[in-house]
Write a structure and sequence with these properties.
With 162 residues, the chain is α+β, with helices and mostly antiparallel strands. 59% of the residues lie in helices and 19% in strands. α1 runs parallel beside α3. InterPro entries: DUF5698 (IPR044035), UPF0316 (IPR022930).
Length: 162
């Protein structure tokens, strides 16, 4: 029962630590600080439990390490599902499909910026959208051009007003 408790609480600790990183990187500092308090509290209690009598019972360390493994994996899945933030997606588009692609993207609520056209009949299209909508954006683009290359960057707003 002790091993299972160590394993489960280590998973919870690591998953919350990942969530804390996500919320802090998206500007939610107070919520991040509260999560850090919880993570630290769990870590102190858990580590104390594991270290108590570790020479006689190495199983606690193994349960701790396995929980860290599972917690790290769960945290990455959690990060993928939550997908907070806004991204800027860049794609080079052939001018022959540009109009249709723009209409489809706008119809789905995405903000578009045409960066430049070049002599090769191509336009760099920048699409601003929620990170959660990455698959929708990709599906729309690949529906028009199966060989498209999409570059995605996280947007951090520096200032809205000077």
């Amino acid at each position: 029962m002790v091993y299972l408790s160590i394993f489960i609480f280590k998973i919870i600790e690591d998953a919350l630590a990942t969530l804390r990183l996500i919320v802090v990187s998206n500007g939610k500092k107070v919520f991040g600080a509260i999560l850090q308090f919880i993570v630290t509290l769990i870590w102190i209690i858990l580590t104390g439990t594991v270290l108590l009598g570790i020479k006689e019972d190495i199983g606690k360390a193994i349960a701790f390490a396995l929980g860290a493994l599972a917690g790290s994996y769960l945290g990455s899945l959690l990060e993928e599902k939550i997908a907070l933030g806004t991204n800027l997606f860049k794609v080079e588009v052939d001018n022959s499909i540009l109009g249709k692609l723009e209409r489809k993207l706008r119809k789905n609520g995405f903000e578009l910026i045409k960066v430049k056209s070049d002599s090769n009949n191509k336009t760099i299209l920048e699409i601003r959208g929620r990170r959660k909508k990455k698959k929708i954006i990709s599906d729309i683009i690949f529906g028009f051009d199966k060989k498209a290359i999409i570059i995605s960057e996280k947007i951090r707003i520096i200032s809205l007003v000077h």
